[in-house]
Amino acid sequence: MKTRVTRRVALAIGTAGLFTAPAARAQAWPSRPVTVIMPFSAGGGTDLLARALAQHLGETLGQQFVVDNRSGAGGNIGGAVVARAAPDGYTILFGTPGPLANNKLIYRNLPFDPEQAFAPVVLIAKSPLVVAAKASLPVGSIREMVAYAKANPGKLTVGVPGNGTLGHITALLLEKELGISLTSVPYRGTADVVKDLLGGQIDLAMDFLPSYVPLAHEGKIRALAVTTAQRSSDLADVETVQEAGFRGFEASAWYALAAPAGTPNEIVERLNAATNAFLGSARGQEAIAKLSMQAVGGTPAELRAFIAAELRKWAPVVREANIAL
């Protein structure tokens, strides 16, 4: 998959040099290692992207950026760590739709409001979700899966990377739109979903695409459909849910960097510029392409607007499906 450098990435790279003379507190930052909270378990595509970015940030900003996996509760455990952290730039979140947006719609007792708790830094990348099946399941397409599920109501299990994650609510939406019944099995991240799908403990997975591309190419699992409006170039022969006849069905995973609310703008800007530089670099483009993602980049304001739009899109879906945790 060729990773395209967007215009806003190029603009952000061009402004990177403007952040060399802000307030003294930002000039002094970072003076010690920075913790990057990853709210899911190690080993998945999201974790790999976080580690590639952390290495670049460390080399660019002169201090080590340490990825700390705090999985559980659909990303809320890790999100809460950052929400409670001092707004000094030494604890930041590598977030996904759950802790940065959708969990607000799903969890009744969410310990933080993502729109209030975090200072958006940058939208890093997007990717489709995939409906994947274990190799032994006798279905080769999403249509065949629907027929099998209707003939065996409630018997198919679908692994998702956590309660309330985008994979979870997309699986629930898939059930509703396709008129089938599945049994959702929440895990503490993608790595555990993949392990049990390969082992045959679950029948299906609804999860972020990157970790499943090589497994599909090797024939170890079967990709039945992707959830975006267009096909993924990494799985060009795999149809979209819409192409299977379910018009209007669309969902995409995304990855973003955020800091605790109140983090000085100068620090946010330095993180933003360094991340955009990563996305525009050969190393960044290679890392994004290997993970079957598309680089986005841009400004903190653009990320804030994007999150607001995601909440507007998913709120009626969650309400209609009566999804609550």
SSE layout and pairing:
Elements: H1 7-15, H2 24-28, E1 34-38, H3 45-61, E2 65-69, H4 76-84, E3 91-95, H5 97-106, H6 114-117, E4 118-134, H7 142-151, E5 157-160, H8 166-178, E6 183-186, H9 190-199, E7 204-208, H10 213-217, E8 221-226, E9 252-260, H11 265-280, H12 282-290, E10 294-295, H13 300-321
Parallel strand pairs: 1-2, 1-3, 5-6, 5-7
Antiparallel strand pairs: 3-9, 4-7, 4-8, 4-9, 4-10
Helix pairs in contact: 1-11, 3-11, 5-13, 11-12
Pfam families: TctC
Organism: Muricoccus nepalensis
Protein name: Tripartite tricarboxylate transporter substrate binding protein
Describe, in plain words, how this protein is organized in 3D.
With 325 residues, this protein is an alpha/beta fold. The chain has 2 domains: 187 residues, D-Maltodextrin-Binding Protein, domain 2, CATH 3.40.190.150; 108 residues, D-Maltodextrin-Binding Protein, domain 2 (3-Layer(aba) Sandwich), CATH 3.40.190. Helix content is 43%, strand content 19%. Strands 1, 2, 3, 4, 5, 6, 7, 8, 9 and 10 form a 10-stranded mixed beta sheet that branches. Strand 1, helix 3 and strand 2 form a beta-alpha-beta unit. Helix 3 packs across helix 11. The longest helix has 22 residues. The chain is globular. The chain starts with 6 loop residues before the first helix and ends with a helix. About 2% of the residues have low confidence.
